[in-house]
Amino acid sequence: MTTRAGFVALIGEPNAGKSTLLNRMVGAKVSIVTHKVQTTRARIRGVAMEGDAQIVFVDTPGLFRPRRRLDRAMVAAAWGGAADADIVVLLVEAHRGLTEGVGAILDALKERVAEGRTVALAINKIDRVKAETLLALSAELNEAYPFAKTFMISAEKGHGVDDLRGWLAETLPEGPWLYPEDQIADLPMRMIAAEITREKLTLRLHQELPYQLTVETEGWDDRKDGSTRIDQMIYVARDGHKGIVLGHKGETIKAISQAARAEIAEFLGRPVHLFLQVKVRPGWLDEAERYSEMGLDFREGD
Ligand SMILES: Nc1nc2c(ncn2[C@@H]2O[C@H](COP(=O)(O)OP(=O)(O)OP(=O)(O)O)[C@@H](O)[C@H]2O)c(=O)[nH]1
Ligand SMILES: [Mg+2]
Predict the structure, then answer these.
(1) What confidence tens digit (pLDDT) does each residue in 275-299 have?
(2) Whose CA is nearest to atom 27 of ligand 1?
(3) 0.90 cut: is pTM over it?
(4) Contacts of 245 (CB under 8 A, 6+ apart)
(5) What residue ranges do the domains of the chain occupy?
(6) Pocket test for ligand 1, best of 13, 15, 34, 40 (most atoms within 8 A of CB)
């Protein structure tokens, strides 16, 4: 049997639907998704099998003009994912088209991505536009960059996703599989659990707050009774943020904890006892350890 295997990096502006596509390709939620921009902070791998091919999808943080150290480290992680991949898939939102941000990504692709590297275009969220507009958008984007192939997809609804997966499988180089056949992700469980809690925080909290907090799993105990106790720390940047995260009589943190616990338990397939604490740490955005916990390179943020 000739096997194929390789890395496929999903890149695009924040909110383009990269994590949604990764989850659909893998058939499980390994990367968190919200309606807000800059949800994903680090590279997250998900493994999909297609016939004799193993496709390792690399979800990346959205590409945008970074301001903070964290932003810069995120954008660097995204470009690093693209540089290491066999195939790059650029996601563009159908209803937004060739935005300034997409234009900047195309310019950077020309500079950064080695000649001969396969770059495909996936116009996503086609469920949001009329079919007639897609042809023109595809032509416009292909004029701006020589894509190897263009796909029209809806990561959320699943349209066009099988076509894309099939093409990726036949385009990847021949080679042995990189992961065991039944593995879907390579993120440690404690990190997935922290991400799930961060997703619930992001969904629940408003404005800048989700961008100024991070979650770390500090304790993990698989108990004899079949349940797991998980202790997590939520670092916030300001005193005032702690009160908001806790909420009136602790109602906010309670709701977040319940939602996160249910999803972590489902993922693990066992009951979970989740204990959340909130710590004010004004400098966390400039602490190297926080970055390594997130899977980011601190120095890339310099
Ligand atoms: N209508 C529609 N919405 C979609 C589709 N794909 C993703 N979305 C929505 O778009 C939003 C962003 O999705 P994500 O998968 O988090 O986007 P992302 O590119 O990973 O975003 P960042 O991690 O912030 O860079 C979510 O609300 C998704 O439900 C789609 O095909 N159609
Ligand atoms: Mg994402």
Answers:
(1) 999 999 999 999 999 999 999 999 9
(2) 35
(3) yes
(4) 201, 205, 209, 213, 234, 236, 252, 253, 256, 278
(5) 4-171, 186-301
(6) 15
